Amino acid sequence: MNKLKIILIFVFIGAISIIGGAYFKMNSITSHENFETKIFYSAITKNINNKNVALSKFKEKWLLINFWATWCAPCREEIPDLNHLFNENKKINLIGIAIDEIEDVKKFLIETPINYESLILSDMKGVEISKSLGNDKGVLPFTVLINPNGEVQNTFYGKLDMTTLKRYLLDTVK
Known about the structure:
174 residues, alpha/beta, 7-stranded mixed beta sheet
C-alpha cells in the first residue's frame, strides 16, 4: 500500500508539473512574440552599408514593411509613392526590405533614392520572413502592416494603390 501511495504522489506531482509548465509556456509569450511576427522580430538583416540591423528594434511600433527587389518592375514603380507616404505619415515606421544583393541595391539607389529605412535580406531568408508575415502567394512587391502589439494588421499583394492605402492607414493607425 505504501508503494502505491508513493507512485500516486509521483504521478500527481508529474501531472502538476506538466500542467504548470504548459501554463507558464503559454503565458510567457508576450504580444510581441506573436506567431506571425516571431520570425521577423528575431531576424537580423543588413542595411545598405552592410551593417547588421536587429529587426527587434521595431517592436511596439506601427510598421509598414514593403518587400521588394531591384529586378521587380512594380516594386520599382511604387518607391516614389512610398517615399511620399513616408514624408507625409509619421505615425508609422516604413521599412523597405529588398530581397536582393547589397551591390544590386546600391546601384539601384543611385537613380532611385529611398527616403525610408532600407534593409536587405538576400536569398531564402527574405522569402521565409515574407511568407511568415502572410505572403503565401510568394509575390513581390508584398507589403504588410504590423500593429504595436506585434500582430499582422493587414497584408497587401502586388503594387500598392496609394489612395486606398492612405485611406486605410488614416482609419487604422491612431
